[in-house]
Every structure is written in structure tokens, then in C-alpha cells.
Amino acid sequence: MTTDSTARDRHVPWLFVGGFAVVVGVNAIMVWLAIGSFSGLYTPQPRQRSLHYNEIIARQADRDALGWRLETSWHAPENRLEIAVVDARGRPLGNARLHAELVRPVEKRAPVAVDLVAVDGGRYAATVTLPARGNWDLDVVIDYDGRRFAQTRRMFLE
């Protein structure tokens, strides 16, 4: 003779199996999404970059010795990016050539080119149409007086 409690007890192990199956299934989906959404590589040719690592470090030391500084600001209502460039003494670098791109650090998306125009001595500005709001890396390359300066700055653009 079976009672109601023993009939119910037969289902308990299957409830555990079903619960674990749900957990494993959800974790498998999360792993699949994580692997497929971001490669983890920021540089297009990481192996080539690693082979020339000492040269990259030397160039960075030369760049740091210049003492140039960037001051960036984002004006959300106008979608306007402003960059001020000054030398080690705080003097503006006018007539410099700036090349800038906005790169989304967590998506495989083409960089957004930024066409900066000189506003006045050492200040440059551009209106940028962003495909998404959030964290962006601003990659800036400055050519001035035969020298090159590059810097990346993380910005939250709303």
C-alpha cells in the first residue's frame, strides 16, 4: 500500500535533476553569448604588436617626454566634442594636425571618425553622431612641428 507521501517522494529526485538542468542550460547560454560578443582583442594585430613591444615602449617614453596634455570635454545637447592641446609649459598648440576616432571598447563595431576643426589657438572641436551612448575610447594622434603624440582616453558619452 502506497501513501500519498511516498508517491510524492518519488518526484523529489527529478525536481533536483530538473533544477540542475535549468542552471546548466542558463550558464551554457551565458557562456555562448560572452564568447561570441567580445573577442578580448583591442589591437587588430596583437602578435605583431607584441614582437615590437620594446619599440612601442620607447615611443611611449618619447611621447611622455614631450609633456603634451589633452583636455577633453563632451557637450551632450549639441553632440560636440572639444579637445584642447597644450605643451609642457601649458601653452596651446595651435596649427597642429589632429586625427581622432571614437572606438566602442565592448563591441565589434567600426570606429567613428571625428573630423576636428580648429576653434582657436590649441582648441579643436567636432560634432559627432554616435550610434550608441555609453563608454567610448577616444584615440587621438597629434602631429605638430615634426613630432607625433598619441593618447587614448576613456570617456562616457551620453
Widest sheet, order of strands: 1-2-6-5
Helix content: 25-40%
Q: How large is the radius of gyration?
A: 26 Å
Helix count?
4
Shape, principal axes of CA atoms: elongated
Under the CATH scheme, which class of the largest domain? Mainly Beta
Portion in strands: 25-35%
By DSSP, the count of extended strands is 8
Indicate the CATH architecture of the largest domain: Sandwich
Contiguous runs where pLDDT drops below 50 for at least 5 residues: none
**Would you tell me the structural class of the helices and strands?**
alpha+beta
Distance between the termini: 70 Å
- CATH fold call of the largest domain: Immunoglobulin-like
Main sheet summary: 4 strands, antiparallel
What's the domain count?
Answer: 2
H/E order of the elements? HHHHEEEEEEEE
Average of the residue pLDDT scores:
89
CATH H-level superfamily title of the largest domain: Macroglobulin (MG2) domain
Walk me through this protein's architecture.
This protein is of the alpha+beta class. The protein has 2 domains: 4-37; 67-157, Macroglobulin (MG2) domain (Immunoglobulin-like). 33% of the residues lie in helices and 35% in strands. It is built from 4 helices and 8 strands, in the order ααααββββββββ. A 4-stranded antiparallel β-sheet has the order 1-2-6-5, with no helix packed on it. The chain has a 4-stranded antiparallel β-sheet with strand order 4-3-7-8, with no helix packed on it. A hairpin with a 2-residue loop joins strand 7 (134-144) and strand 8 (147-157). The longest helix has 26 residues, at 12-37. The radius of gyration is 26 Å and the shape is elongated. The chain starts with a helix and ends with a strand. 8% of the residues are buried. The mean pLDDT is 89.
